[in-house]
Each structure stands twice: as C-alpha cells, then as structure tokens.
Amino acid sequence: MTTSMDVPARPARSARLSPGQRSFALLYTASIAGGLLIWQLVAQGYSSFVLASPLDVLKRLWSLTASGELPLALAGALQHMMLGYLIACAIAIPLGMLMGRNRFINDLVDPIVNLVYAVPSVAWVPFIMIWCGLYFEARVALVVIMCVFDMIIVVSTGARNADRRLLDVGRSFGAGAWQRTRLVLLPESLPFLFTALRIGVVRAVNAMITAELFLAAVNLGAIMKQAAVRLDSAAVLGVLAVLCLLGLALQEALLVIERRICVWRPRTKA
Question: What is the pTM of this model?
C-alpha cells in the first residue's frame, strides 16, 4: 500500500522575488512616485484651472466614475479601439510575414508601406471623413491606419531575420512550406511579433483618443472637450491618466503573455 511518505514531494515553487525582480519593482514604484511628487510640486505654483494637482485629478476621476460617465465612455472607446486593433493585426501579421520571406512581395509592397508610413496619421483624418463619415466606422478606420504600418515593418523585419539554418534543417527533414512556417518561422519570429503587438496596442490607444477628438466628439473625447470648455483641467488630466494606465496595462499584459509563451528565450540574470 502506497502512503504519502512514499510519494516524492515536488519542490515547492518559491514565492519570494529574486533580487532582480525586487530591484525592478522598487525602481518601478519609485519612478511613478517621483513623477507624482514632481507633478504635485509644479501644480502648487499654478491655479487649478491651469494645472490640477494629482489629488484634485483623483477626486475628479472618482466623481466621474461614481456618476457612471467615465466607465461608459471608456467602454465605448474600447469598442472601436479593439476592433481597429484586431483588423490591423489581421492585416499586418500575414502581410509582414510574406514581405519578410518573399523578395518579390517585399519589393512590391515595401515602397507603398514606406510612402504611407511617412505621412502623419492625423493627415488621413480629412480623407477618412470623406470615405467613412464621422462615426464608428471612421474611428475604426483611423485606428487601423495608425497601427498597421508600424506593425508591418516590425513583423517583416522579424521574418526577414529568422535563422535560415533552422529553416534548412526543417527542409532537410522533409517539412513542407506550411510546416516550416508553423513549426520554425513563427516560433523564431515570436519576439518580433510580440514587439509589433505592443507597439500596435499603444498606437491603438493613441488613435482611439485622436479619432474621438478630431472626428465626432464622443466617449472620452467628449469628456475632454467639455472639460476644456469649462476650464476643468482636473477632468482633462484625469482622462489622460486613464489613457496612460490603459496603455501601460495592455503593454504589461502582452509582456506577461510573451514570457509565458517564449519560454526558450534566455533571460538576463540579475
């Protein structure tokens, strides 16, 4: 009869942070605290109409949240932001992979990508207004335009820099084109893919508020415009703080997913 004494105990996973992780957490916290302190000190020299203090911004955010105005605006903004971001991913990832691995497609598409990328994204707003109007479709289109070209450039660079020796090994073992892509090229390009996703998600947050300010003023853009008319700098800064936290949270989430998936990547020792 087997008892619990006969079963080898699994090594307990230490819940303590490594010195490198503790140092990173400390610096992360100190950076945010230092920024808030500098903001507080600078705000003391100005009227609250010009520059609200962090405490005033926090109070204003609480009132906007308690009234339900901010959560509803954020939920509406996230709809067109996430849809545009997903469309940009669906375009950029396969097209970037093709450009990175196929010389003909790269020579055909790369000049167009670079030409359009050189144009400031806001300059497309008048054309989007003509093509898509002022509402949901136009906001989604602006998010796609502001995300897709950055992502294409990063993904194509990753596919182009994939280790050819690994692809040759797959070919020598009889792997077809799809198997080499799925089993070799995609894993090899994952760091670049996640970099493209992180860049794209920040651009999506940027595009989301740009669309709501330059097109029909809705959601967070409407809150900012109405607050600017009332000289309510606390509300304007509160929305900006929400955008900063949203971008930071999405980037950190993608970093966590990348660490879980790319387990073979060497990590820097503290």
Answer: 0.82
pLDDT tens digits, 51-79: 888 888 899 999 999 998 999 999 999 99
Tell me the C-alpha distance between 183 and 171, whole Å: 11
Query: Coil, helix or strand for 142?
Result: helix
Give the tokens for residue 221: 């853009």
Domains of the chain in start order, with CATH, are 59-261 (1.10.3720.10)
Helix (H) or strand (E) holding 139: helix 136-160
Integer Cα distance of 206 and 200 in angstroms: 10
Residue 201 makes CB contacts below 8 A (sequence gap 6+) with: 85, 247, 250, 251, 254
pLDDT of 88-137, one tens digit each? 999 999 999 888 878 888 888 888 888 888 888 788 888 888 888 888 99
Query: Which amino acid does the sequence have at 236?
Result: V
